[in-house]
Write a structure and sequence with these properties.
Length: 534
């Protein structure tokens, strides 16, 4: 039996890992269009003026609540790679929202959010916060709506805009008026009290047969941690997965291999067409797996699955023997996605000279709405992460983040731009300066961003000694209103009997576009894909 896994991001890697143990007699084929595995999990190590610095272009910190990631870390044996941020550290306790002058009467600048009565922003919204539980019980509502409209009913429009829109910028890089409340807030997803197991004595094979991840000793070890990452960056996770999969005799990885189309044949196996890039040529081939897990971005999978829906023969068919009764897979192309520019900046002074202690800050939607054109006045900054507070140990494992804050040799921050704003930094801007330049000349757009950050932090900033720009196109799906219900309808079609027009449960569609964008959501979805094939 062959099982094909489409897409080598974190979801696809996690799926390939678990099915290779759950079905040891099956041959697992993992297809990735790029050279590199890991999708948006991308880290880089640079040496800047003698400093060894880890930069992140995608996810940077994970929450220990994601049991499937802890299980995977245990199975891969990479516990020693972990760096953690305790719940009592400033990075855990202080998160800020920057209120531009004139946006909110009586409040401006950096304000902490959370239980902090010294924060003018929190004092301003004390009454809406206090009455929220009562309003939640009365006005929760069962019909899906936008996060903004839900938060406005419970907390009031002013707070929903000032704080809610900023938080959604930080998670989805999107407009809170477009994101579905049901898909993103926990109130509508029933909690399973037995969803985590903690037993270090079981084997990988035993663990992946169970629907609930087994965190073993790591659950306790990370109990008091707010977030964690890896010494060499988040990409340590896909790298370890790749190495592990390469060592498994029943897994074959196809790199630089783009999935083109899939069809179900009359014998209910698939005809999967793909192209592979070679040095100077491209070859086209097909395989015939019995089961498929798609962990592709949904719009890509929409194109791939179209061949079946339109009943047109695949472009490179071995067989025209196709099942004709299948229903089209619905809703694959409904959601849009956000493009984000991620800009790492390195300063040659300790963090205490650059920013206050904390995780970073987010910026709400402008009072007048998003501009249609980017400009120097409005470059579309969504937020800034103070990486040196949460991940200084990537650059110097011998110092605690608290020590690094005043004594570190440099400061690392990351600016997120774009999402609902037009992208500001033009394609002509180099993604990094030459490492041989002792004092790089900052391109115009990066200097403008720096000037804005300096205003937010109310202090002049020294010249950065390095920057790295990551252009992440269509990187975060926007779960629009009705997403949960649409995904259920999609699963219903996939799981229905073939005789009734369904796909007989032989194809699973998972990944960031379906059941949660966070790394833990993706790893869990990959882990549990194909459980029903047992
Ligand atoms: C800037 C940024 C910051 C983030 N920060 C965090 C964070 O701090 N914490 C957190 O938990 N989450 C964070 N996330 C979210 C999380 O990183 C992603 O949602 C997750 O990595 C998505 O994984 P995936 O495998 O589902 O999708 P992807 O990473 O998109 O993987 C899909 C894979 O499919 C491949 N592919 C595409 N087309 C084809 C084809 N035709 N054939 C074969 N392969 C194909 C792609 O090359 C890619 O490798 C962040 C995301 C971004 C972009």
């Amino acid at each position: 039996m062959q099982i094909a896994v489409l897409g080598g991001g974190l979801t696809g890697l996690s799926a390939a890992f678990s099915v290779s143990y759950r079905f040891p007699a099956a041959q697992v084929l993992l297809f990735e269009k790029g050279k590199r595995l890991g999708g948006w999990a991308q880290s880089e190590l640079v040496n800047v003026q003698g400093r060894r610095i880890v930069l992140e272009g995608g996810p940077r910190t994970l929450r220990p609540k994601g049991a499937a990631v802890l299980e995977l870390i245990r199975h891969l044996g990479i516990e020693d790679e972990l760096i953690t941020v305790s719940k009592s550290s400033p990075a855990a306790k202080k998160r800020y929202v920057y209120i531009p002058p004139g946006q909110l009467p009586g409040v401006s600048g950096l304000n902490t959010v959370g239980l902090d009565l010294r924060s003018p922003l929190m004092r301003k919204f004390l009454w809406p916060i206090l009455r929220a539980p009562l309003r939640y019980t009365r006005f929760k509502g069962d019909k899906d709506e936008s996060i903004h409209s839900f938060a406005s009913r419970i907390l009031g429009d002013e707070m929903a805009t000032a704080v809610g829109s900023a938080v959604i910028h930080g998670i989805y890089a999107a407009d809170s008026r477009q994101i579905s409340a049901h898909s993103t807030l926990p109130f509508w997803t029933p909690k399973d009290p037995n969803s985590v197991v903690a037993d270090s004595s079981t084997s990988i094979h035993m663990d992946v047969l169970q629907p609930h991840p087994n965190v073993g000793h790591l659950g306790n070890a990370l109990k008091n941690m707010s977030v964690y990452s890896f010494k060499s960056g988040i990409e340590a996770l896909p790298r370890a997965l790749e190495k592990h999969l390469e060592s498994r005799s029943n897994v074959q990885i196809f790199r630089e291999s783009s999935i083109l189309s899939l069809l179900m044949r009359k014998d209910h196996t698939f005809e999967l067409s793909y192209s592979t890039l070679h040095n100077t040529s491209t070859s086209f081939s097909t395989v015939n797996p019995t089961y498929i897990i798609s962990a592709l971005p949904l719009p890509t999978f929409h194109r791939v699955a179209k061949a079946q829906s339109t009943n047109s023969p695949s472009p490179y068919p071995n067989s025209q023997n196709v099942t004709s009764s299948l229903s089209p897979i619905p809703h694959l192309a409904t959601n849009s996605s956000s493009s984000v520019h991620v800009l790492n900046l390195i300063f040659p002074t300790p963090p205490s000279e650059i920013h206050p202690p904390g995780f970073g800050y987010l910026i709400p939607r402008p009072r007048e709405g998003y501009p249609t054109v980017a400009s120097d006045d409005q470059p579309g900054i969504l937020g800034v992460v103070f990486d040196s507070c949460s991940a200084s140990q990537q650059d110097d494992p011998t110092m605690s983040p608290e020590e690094w804050y005043t004594k570190g040799t440099h400061t690392k921050i990351t600016v997120m731009l774009g999402g609902p704003y037009p992208l500001y930094i033009p394609p002509s801007t180099p993604t990094s300066p030459s490492l041989h330049n002792v004092q790089p000349d900052l391109p115009h757009h990066i200097r403008i961003v720096l000037n804005h950050i300096s205003t937010h932090l109310s202090r002049p900033l020294p010249e950065p000694i390095y920057y790295r720009l990551w252009r992440n196109d269509n990187c975060i799906p926007t779960y629009s209103i009705g997403h949960l219900e649409r995904m259920q309808e999609m699963r219903d079609v996939l799981n229905k009997d073939i005789s009734s027009g369904g796909w007989g449960g032989k194809l699973e569609v998972v990944g960031a576009g379906v059941g949660g964008v966070s790394v833990p959501d993706c790893i869990l979805a990959g882990r549990n894909a194909g459980l029903r094939w047992l």
